[in-house]
Amino acid sequence: MKKENANKNLYKCADLCLAGVLTLWFPVVNLDNTIPQKVLFCFEDSSELRNILKMFWSDNLQVEPKSYFQSIKLLKSRIYQE
């Protein structure tokens, strides 16, 4: 799900697991909670991000488990903080 916002191209996803993986390489730019009971994680779109997405969806991406778990915890913390 790709959206444009102001002058930036953003990639938005609602999948916590995918967002957890993406935050290992890319910072979350924004949390979009305009849809009730749903949070969209916003990342700056880039070819590098698209490459990670391809690897994720084709099951060719490996991550360090502890880092991934920590990433999920931080995202959950941000969700409930907002």
In short:
With 82 residues, this protein is α+β, with helices and mostly antiparallel strands. It is built from 3 helices and 4 strands; from the N terminus they run E-E-H-E-E-H-H. It has one domain.
SSE blueprint:
Blueprint lengths: L1 E4 L2 E6 L2 H7 L7 E3 L7 E5 L2 H11 L7 H17 L1
Antiparallel strand pairs: 1-2, 2-4, 3-4
Helix pairs in contact: 1-3
Q: What does it look like?
A:
With 82 residues, this protein is α+β, with helices and mostly antiparallel strands. The protein has one domain. Helices cover 43% and strands 22% of the residues. It contains three helices and four strands; from the N terminus they run ββαββαα. Strands 1-2-4-3 form a four-stranded antiparallel sheet. A hairpin with a 7-residue loop joins β3 (30-32) and β4. α1 packs across α3 (65-81). The longest helix is centred in the C-terminal third of the chain and has 17 residues, at 65-81. The radius of gyration is 12 Å and the shape is globular. The mean pLDDT is 91. InterPro entries: DUF5659.
What is the H/E order? EEHEEHH
Beta percentage is 15-25%
Number of helices: 3
Helix percent reads: 40-55%
The largest sheet is: 4 strands, antiparallel
Write a concise keyword list for the protein shown above.
single chain, 82 residues, alpha+beta, four-stranded antiparallel β-sheet, 3 helices, 4 strands, 43% helix, 22% strand
